[in-house]
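re the bet — no i am not wrong, look at it urself. input seq straight from the record:
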Amino acid sequence: MNTTLPLCRSLVRWTSGRSTVSATLAVLLSCTAIHAQAPRGYDASLGTLPEAQGFWRYDQGSPAPVVVGGSLQQGPTGTYQFWYQYLPDFDLSVSPVTVEWELKVISSSRNGCRAGWSMAVQDRNHRGVAVNIDQATISFEAGGGTGGACTSAAFAQGTGTFHRYRLVVGAQVALYVNGSPTPLLTTALGLAGVATPEYCNRVYFGDGTRHASGQTELRYLRYTPHPGIASDYWVISLSTGGSQPIQIDAGSSHANQQYFLLGTLSGTSPGFTFGGIAVPLNLDAYSTLVLSNPNQPPLLGGFGTLDANGHATATFIIPPLAIPGPLHLHHGYVVLSGGAAAYASGALPVKLL
């Protein structure tokens, strides 16, 4: 079924004759903003669980985690208990992500490549890697913990020691431990064994399997995602309407240059090329609607000039719509310099339910 035309027709009827619209605050599911070029993640020193810092928790009944003395204490787990967060649309082959964390493993068992504690990062193309840690071994699982190839190395954790990890995920993947300049493990970027939307554009950590158990303490986990575009809100109710504030950060090198936002209901791959710049959006009827109505609903602030820091703000807003969901939209922008394309952001997702 073509979901683009029903939404576009509804939005055309809504925007007809309107110049401005006030935001309708809806029941929104929110995630922590992923701000461009700034590390994001979880910090146990704040004294709160990950779900209070923008993560969602998937839990099948393990003991309740607690934060004590600046560390997240988890386990002993008996089944799934992990946290995850979705990121703006990104491609690890061209935009590497760095993940750092500090972890104490009190106990952790293993079943094949899976262990009682793991973390993973996965991009829009279902590519990524999972790091699985038990008391004696660290392993990479290609694709981010969904059945990919396994590579392992011995590493003795001890039971009372925190270790610092730095994972660099790009076309090649490398894991560094305790500040060593030599990686403990390396591998090529792998494809996920399961290619479904929930395994795209996300970071997760915790016990990601029912086949092993773990007891751990985590002080922090932070990551640097694809730069350029961010939001505090990722899901809008179709029945009530709502808005997604959009933060634009093209960097100071693009200060005072013009930009325009685009949108799509048709996904991000293969995208298109504009003035020699790759834009990760597939053009469709919604793209035409946005371009034909600059700075009008549903995309306020979609055309303008960046400030002295290369920043701007925009808002995606919809009224209550009687159309079937879910719908998956993406927005991104292009920066113009002297009338020519100079930069394109990643794609920021929003789901209409």
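see?? The longest helix spans residues 4-15. told u. also The longest strand covers residues 97-108. so pay up
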